[in-house]
Amino acid sequence: MARFGRTTMTDSDLLQIIASLRRENEDLRNSKEQLMARQLHGVVSGGAKKSPRDTDREKEHFLQTKRRRETVNLTQELQKMAAKCEALIAQESRIEELERQLAEVYTCDICRSSYDDETHVPRILKKCGHTLCLYCICQLHAQSQYQSVRCPFCTAITHVFIVDLLPKNYALSRRA
C-alpha cells in the first residue's frame, strides 16, 4: 500500500502503473534498436540510402513524437489518479465524521465518558427516558435529599432507592 496524503493506493493500482511504464519503456528500447539498425545499414523505405544526418533527424523526430505520446498518456493517467485520490479523500473525511458522530452517541452527555459495562453503564431514568451513565446517576442520587434523581436535561424526578435497579440501555451499551 502506498499513501498519498491521507489517501492510500492499493497495490494493484501501483502494479498496473508500473506494468504500463515497463511496457512503454520496452517499446522505446525496441524503437531505439530499430532506428539504430537502420542507421547502421543506411536503409530507408524504397531501398534508398540516407545520409547519417537525415537518419539522425528521423530518429530525433521519432523519439520526440514518442515522448509526446508518453507525456500525454502519463498526464491522463495522473489526472485519473488525482480524481480517484480526491474521491478517496472525500470518502475518508465522511467516514471520520460518521465515526465522530457515532462516538458521541456512545458517550454520557454529562461526564463525556464512553459507556462501558463497569462504572459507566448506560441507565435509563424511568420518569423521562433520558440515559445517563451509572457514575453520573450515582452522583446525582447522592446529592439528592430524597431517594430520587433529577434529570439534568428535563428536570423530571425519578424516584429510586437502588440506582443499580434502573433499567440498562442495551442499545447504547458497548458490545465486546
Automatic annotation (TrEMBL):
SUPFAM superfamilies: RING/U-box. GO terms for molecular function: zinc ion binding. It holds the Pfam family zf-RING_UBOX. It comes from the Eukaryota. Residues 108-155 form the RING-type domain. PROSITE patterns: ZF_RING_1, ZF_RING_2. The keyword Nuclease does not apply. Keywords: Metal-binding, Zinc, Zinc-finger. This is RING-type domain-containing protein. It comes from Caenorhabditis brenneri.
